[in-house]
Design goal:
alpha/beta; 5-stranded parallel sheet; 5 strands; binds thymidine-5'-phosphate
Length: 205
């Protein structure tokens, strides 16, 4: 997108990886620095996101292809209504899950990654950086086991191992793998240092 002017930061990882915690820490820090920043997530709170959540509660209610189409509809709407306007307004956009989750989760359901990429070609805005917070599947599952709402569809161990493998093998240069087994402040520091090193004029006061 030629006219994009803000900074677009994505957090990815397995459920329980700590990605949402890191997205929140970064958001708060940028707010404190007085930066114009918005934090968004996918699936969104819009009509397609709500539908995805409803369906996810019932394992097997959607085919992998149907699931893919819903995530794409949700993403298209998110880009049009939220992401693109914010970037054009010079904002920093922090997004919790995006295209890379579709590659990993729907790819792990058996949809070829090339097919997923092709379906995004016409509308995707590429982020400036994607932090993939990596944890072993067993640790992610341990961390989420007490959560009130668990999306059963997305949590079988073997499936999540495939998801992790795809996350770790993505060739896209914007992807940065971060070791999510460490203490929360250590991870936050690494992320901040990366941003300061690579996007100094957008990040520094
Ligand atoms: P959340 O717990 O981060 O809100 O995400 C809900 C689930 O949706 C999570 O288990 C991963 C899954 N998901 C996909 O399968 N494909 C996607 O494209 C996205 C954005 C999420």
């Amino acid at each position: 997108m030629q006219e994009k002017t803000g900074l677009f930061i994505v957090f990815e990882g397995l459920d329980g990886s700590g990605k949402s915690t890191q997205a929140e820490i970064l958001y708060e820090k940028l707010i404190q620095l007085g930066k114009p920043v918005v934090k968004l997530r996918e699936p969104t709170e819009g009509k397609w996101g709500k539908k995805i959540r409803e369906c996810a509660r019932e394992a097997g209610s959607l085919s992998p292809g149907e699931e893919l189409e819903l995530f794409i509809k949700d993403r298209k709407e998110d880009i049009r209504k939220n992401i693109k306007p914010a970037l054009l307004n010079n904002k920093i956009v922090i997004l919790d899950r995006y295209f890379y989750s579709t590659l990993a989760y729907q790819g792990a359901r058996g949809i070829p990654l090339e097919e997923i990429r092709k379906k995004h070609e016409s509308f995707l805005i590429k982020p400036d950086v994607v932090f993939i917070i990596d944890v072993p599947v067993s640790l992610g599952l341990k961390r989420i086991k007490d959560r009130a709402v668990i999306y059963r569809l997305f949590e079988e161990e073997d499936y999540l191992k495939k998801v992790r493998k795809i996350f770790l093998s993505l060739p896209d240069p914007e992807c940065q793998i971060i070791d999510g087994r460490r203490a929360i402040p250590d991870i936050a520091r690494e992320i901040w240092q990366y941003l300061e090193g690579n996007f100094p004029e957008q990040i520094r006061v």
